[in-house]
């Protein structure tokens, strides 16, 4: 290495001493350390950037203890200073809250049941009072066979096929069915009073009592009655030609004045 430093000097001295010497080519030898860097080649990839310094240690917070780890932060972290905390524990109802909910629900159910029981008992007592009053109004007149016959609910239900027989019509007071009573060998119209009827039990009993005392060929005859299992049922004589209102308002043919006058006379006589 020391000798190579003086090669350029020796070459210059030789050229000065022998200027006329034919020199085809002159080579200047430089040490490698003094040579300039070669130019970059065309099409070569750009030089790699310098390596970044290693990331700082990653901190994981877990309760009172902090763990230092050199592992990279989890995916989705915002940076090296991100603290990853464990998920919060599932919310649990306190025992006092659970007990309060159970007691409140039980009290609500008990209150609804108690109100329903009171209303049902009141309705039952009212109906019983009405039916007792019904028997009191009729007294012993009907029971002694002096008036209309008292039917049992089983007889009426059997005669009307459990109220699914031939239905003649339905009004504000209830539905009317046509059936044949075998023991009486006659067709009857069974009227079942609706529970939604606005007619009170007292007015109903008074009407039945008045109709049972009237006897006329132009008036419908009350054959029997029944009030069992909270049911009010009337058994009338069946009118094959229909009622008077059907002829006056619903008839296809108008009644003559002579017929109307006879009807008025019959009503007045009754």
Note the main sheet: 6 strands, mixed
What is the annotated CATH architecture of the domain at 134-257? 2-Layer Sandwich
Radius of gyration based on Cα positions:
59 Å
Pattern of helices and strands: HEEHEHEEEHEEHH
Question: In total, how many beta strands?
Answer: 8
Number of helices: 6
Q: What is the strand arrangement across the widest sheet?
A: 3-7-8-6-5-4
Q: Taking all residues together, what is the mean pLDDT?
A: 69
Q: What is the CATH homology-level superfamily of the domain at 134-257?
A: Phosphorylase Kinase, domain 1
Structural class: alpha+beta
Strand content: 15-25%
Describe this structure in words.
With 270 residues, the protein is α+β, with helices and mostly antiparallel strands. The protein has a domain at 134-257: Phosphorylase Kinase, domain 1, CATH 3.30.200.20. Helices cover 37% and strands 16% of the residues. Strands 3-7-8-6-5-4 form a 6-stranded mixed β-sheet, with helices on both faces. A hairpin with a 2-residue loop joins β1 and β2. α2 runs parallel beside α4. It starts with 6 loop residues before the first helix and ends with a helix. The relative contact order is 0.07.
């Amino acid at each position: 290495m020391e000798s190579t430093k003086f090669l350029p000097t020796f070459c210059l001295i030789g050229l000065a001493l022998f200027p006329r010497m034919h020199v085809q080519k002159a080579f200047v030898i430089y040490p490698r350390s003094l040579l300039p860097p070669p130019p970059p080649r065309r099409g070569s990839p750009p030089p790699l950037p310098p390596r970044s310094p290693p990331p700082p240690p990653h901190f994981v917070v877990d309760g009172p203890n902090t763990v230092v780890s050199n592992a990279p932060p989890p995916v989705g972290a915002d940076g090296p200073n991100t603290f990853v905390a464990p998920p919060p524990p599932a919310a649990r109802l306190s025992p006092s809250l659970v007990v309060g909910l159970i007691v409140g629900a039980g009290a609500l159910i008990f209150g609804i049941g108690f109100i329903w029981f009171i209303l049902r008992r009141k309705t039952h007592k009212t109906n019983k009072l009405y039916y007792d009053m019904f028997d009191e109004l009729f007294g012993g007149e009907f029971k002694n066979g002096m008036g209309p016959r008292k039917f049992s609910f089983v007889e009426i239900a059997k005669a009307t096929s459990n109220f699914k027989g031939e239905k003649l019509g339905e009004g504000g007071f209830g539905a009317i069915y046509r059936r044949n009573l075998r023991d009486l060998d006659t067709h009857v119209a069974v009227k079942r009073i609706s529970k939604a009827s606005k007619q009170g039990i007292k007015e109903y009993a008074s009407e039945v009592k008045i109709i049972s005392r009237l006897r006329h060929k132009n008036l419908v005859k009350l054959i029997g009655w029944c009030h069992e299992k909270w049911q009010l049922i009337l058994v009338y004589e069946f009118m094959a030609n229909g009622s008077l209102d059907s002829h006056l308002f619903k008839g296809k043919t108008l009644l003559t004045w002579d017929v109307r006058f006879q009807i008025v006379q019959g009503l007045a006589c009754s």
